[in-house]
Amino acid sequence: MSMNEFLNWVEARSPKETEFLQVIRETAESIWPFYESKKELYDNRVFQCMVEPERQLVFRVSWVDDQGEMQVNRAFRIQYNSALGPYKGGMRFHPEVNQSIMKFLGFEQTLKNSLTLLPMGGGQGGADFDPKGKSENEIRRFCNNLMMELYRHIGPNIDVPARDMGVSEREIGYLFGAYGKIKNDYTGVLTGRSLGLGGSPLRVEAAGYGNVYFAEEMLSTIGESVEEKTVTVSGYGNVAQYVIEKVNELGGKVVTVSDASGFVHDPEGVNGEKLEYLKEIKADRNGKVSDYADQFGVTFYPDQKPWSIPCDVAIPCANINDIGEEDAKALLANSCLCLVEGANRATESKAAALIKESNMLFAPGKAANAGGVAVSGLEMSQTSQRLNWEIAEVDDRLKKIMKNIHDQCVEYGDNGSKVDYVKGANVAAFLRVAEAMLSRGLD
Ligand code: NDP
Ligand code: 2IT
């Protein structure tokens, strides 16, 4: 089967699943010559098996809102691949959630988890539920009712969900509480729990810190570092906040944050009490990023993205396809050194193609934001040991994991003139999953 035949086959099986098809195409394009060269994998059609999720759950969550009205949502759990360990990946609460987005995230997660070298398979779940504007009681009722179905399908050796967009430590707490009550079992069935519920130190910070550790590795390949660099960030949620915290600690300056309604430009940098205020408005489900501009007298640009603001490093931490072709052109025109995806698949295909042709370094989310799931994996180890490690130990392990992912990208993606991180990450991740699948027997 040629690559085009393969892509036609996938498209015929999953028509209109735009995000899913986009990520399969990108992965196929970067691994295909390598795949063909690995005769045993190719002849056994391992990639054809890998792109099909092992199991897909779709279920109704009905719940009563504060006005006494019945509300209906659709929830998902895609148990994508268990070759390397129990299914592992986040739960997303966002109105745009659909089958295609769940499958794209589940596939990406399978490859990302492989890069961490920890024993985790890949999965993803979520619901088309919008936490914005909901009361605390509504959120808790929704989490309880979602778990009334999900509990049958997960377990510490089966599938271990965690946080993602719209799901914070608070929602994980409610989901964990519901699971414990239904099953009468206090176990590590979710990660991203608070410390009081047996979570890991640094899980909250992990995706953001890990992202900046990865950026440091990338910059070091061109003799640079984060220190004194100007950084643009999109989003202002979990990943964005801890990217900003770590950039500040390393002597850089973050000058933008955003949400779905626009972006804030703070030329002096988001730091100190300003960063603490940003965390507060995000924790308040009715907050918006423009509140920051009002509070500190800086400019808010409605309905715009931050990518035209000059920067050395760009770190998108919001939604899929955040960086389009025009945004990529703006980053290139401003001589941005590197683009490091905090969000999963933050860069549109055409934008990624433009960047590939340039000198700008570009790291895909599956490599750069793997710190979140890596510390989830470390949380699973700590839960099994019934111990909590010191912050310094978790941080040290996180740094080593990010460095190792960078090394894998260089090993498989260095084309002589620059490192193709997309190819490097895809090939390294694919190889580990594929060999595990083959060794378990494919059929
Ligand atoms: P949060 O829910 O904490 O924050 C999401 C942020 O994205 C918010 O600022 C939100 O703004 C913004 N956003 C959502 N939709 C849009 C949009 N259409 N345009 C602009 N901004 C938007 O999520 P996280 O920070 O956890 O996740 C962000 C990204 O990072 C996701 O892609 C996620 O999959 C990925 N990720 C998260 C990890 C984690 O451990 N948290 C680990 C690895 C990756 P608004 O308030 O307007 O919705
Ligand atoms: O995209 C991601 O890697 C996450 N949302 C984290 C998943 C996890 O299991 O910690």
Can you describe this structure?
With 443 residues, the protein is of the alpha/beta class. It has 17 helices and twelve strands. The chain has helices at residues 3-13, 18-37, 39-43, 46-50, 99-116, 136-150, 169-183, 203-220, 238-249, 272-283, 290-296, 325-333, 349-356, 365-368, 371-385, 391-413, 421-440; strands at residues 55-64, 70-81, 87-93, 122-127, 159-163, 230-234, 253-259, 262-265, 299-302, 313-316, 338-340, 361-363. The chain has a seven-stranded mixed beta sheet, sandwiched between helices. A five-stranded mixed beta sheet has the order 1-2-4-3-5. Helix 6 (136-150) packs across helix 7 (169-183). The two termini are 19 Å apart. The mean pLDDT is 97. The structure holds NADPH dihydro-nicotinamide-adenine-dinucleotide phosphate and (2Z)-2-iminopentanedioic acid. NADPH dihydro-nicotinamide-adenine-dinucleotide phosphate (NDP) binds next to helix 9 and strand 7. (2Z)-2-iminopentanedioic acid is lined by residues 88-90, 109, 112, 162-164, 191-192, 344, 372-373, 376.
